[in-house]
Amino acid sequence: MGTYNRYPLTLVSGRGCWLRDDQGHRYLDAVAGIATCTLGHSDRAMRRALKDQLNRLQHVSNLYQIPEQEQLARWLVDNSCADSVFFCNSGAEANEAAIKLARKHGHQRLGIERPVILTAAASFHGRTLAAVSATGQPRYHKGFEPMVEGFETFEYNNLASFEALLARSEANGPRVSAVLIEPLQGEGGVIPGDSAIFQAIRRHCSQREILLIFDEVQVGMGRSGQLWGYEQLGVTPDAITLAKGLGGGHAIGALLVNQQSDIFEPGDHASTFGGNPFACRAGLTVARELERRHLLRNVRERGEQLRHGLETLVERFPNVLHQARGWGLLQGLVLRDDCELNAGAVVKAALDQKLLLVPAGPKVVRMVPALVISRRDVSALLARLERTLQLLQA
């Protein structure tokens, strides 16, 4: 179906942070499958692990015990604030599971007949009907109304807006069962959360027994420079959703919950493919390679290099660029509002410089390269981006 406006580019092979098209041209990839290919393309450890898994077992369903699933769940629990894991296939599915968890919490724990979940304006939580209803961007709703009820939005990084909405929502008694929020808004423009505001939201949720759910689909698994985005904020959520980087390019999602929030029972939720041996072996490989290669340190170092380079570009192109912002290897280059260029034009022009970028809204160019990116690769990225901007400004 015609659901994508694809770029005129056919990619056929890759290694690390580099891709080749069907004409033999080589591209520096700062998209990584949209923050997904954690270890880059055709990683040796991933190839070996998945070849071995294919030789043994791909899929059996959740009717039976799955050792790879149990091992990945154990790693996630041992390395996070969570106590239990539900596996699915994508970020949207992980958020759907979180929404169902929030609804059950509202009914069972808080006695709310029609629970409400608070989400942030400009957020993005997925494309399924409930996840897109939770998404605070009306452009994603258009044509698919009526939206699923039970979501109300406040302004991101605005405590007064949050508190006013909470007060309105509960004016006639408890109605709010959860807050679903991104530690850093990705699709909304690469906007990091404000630590003080998130800590205040945590206090409000704790006082009212409201679940605080962090959508870490984009920032989780090391992309921020910490393993989890909540570590950047100094806030511990009750649940987090994961996907993208968890599978290193393979389809897997997860909902992680603390012990108090672990209220699903047999029959409440399920997934045929979720947590299958192949996907979990991919996730285990990512997890183990993050540790073995000390990739969090690389993310911090290369993220600092990238951020410094982007800030230098902002100084060199003051008529076009406004600022750089982000965490680790999730960086956004923000165009000036009064500049005629939009992010799509920059991304398209960068293709001519053999550089792959991705928009994050109309005025933000996003860079989310593989976590294995080298110093030399970051330098090449910045050089190609500078050349792109020079040509666009000429």
Distinctive features:
394 residues; alpha/beta; Aspartate Aminotransferase, domain 1; Aspartate Aminotransferase, domain 2; seven-stranded mixed sheet; 17 strands
Description:
By secondary structure, the protein is α/β, with parallel strands linked by helices. The protein has two domains: 132 residues, Aspartate Aminotransferase, domain 1; 247 residues, Type I PLP-dependent aspartate aminotransferase-like (Major domain) (Aspartate Aminotransferase, domain 2), CATH 3.40.640. The protein is 38% helix and 18% strand. The strands form four sheets. Strands 4-12-11-10-7-5-6 form a seven-stranded mixed beta sheet, with helices on both faces. Strands 1-2-3-15 form a four-stranded mixed beta sheet. Strand 8 and strand 9 form a beta hairpin. Helix 2 runs antiparallel to helix 9, helix 3 packs parallel to helix 9 and helix 11 crosses helix 12. The chain is globular. The mean pLDDT is 97.
What are the SSEs and their pairings?
Blueprint: E1 11-15, E2 18-21, E3 26-29, H1 32-35, H2 44-54, H3 67-78, E4 84-88, H4 91-108, E5 116-120, H5 129-134, E6 151-154, H6 159-169, E7 176-181, E8 184-185, E9 191-192, H7 195-208, E10 211-215, H8 229-233, E11 239-242, E12 253-257, H9 277-292, H10 295-316, E13 321-327, E14 330-335, H11 343-352, E15 355-356, E16 358-359, E17 364-367, H12 375-393
Parallel strand pairs: 3-15, 5-6, 5-7, 7-10, 10-11
Antiparallel strand pairs: 1-2, 2-3, 4-12, 8-9, 11-12, 13-14, 14-17, 16-17
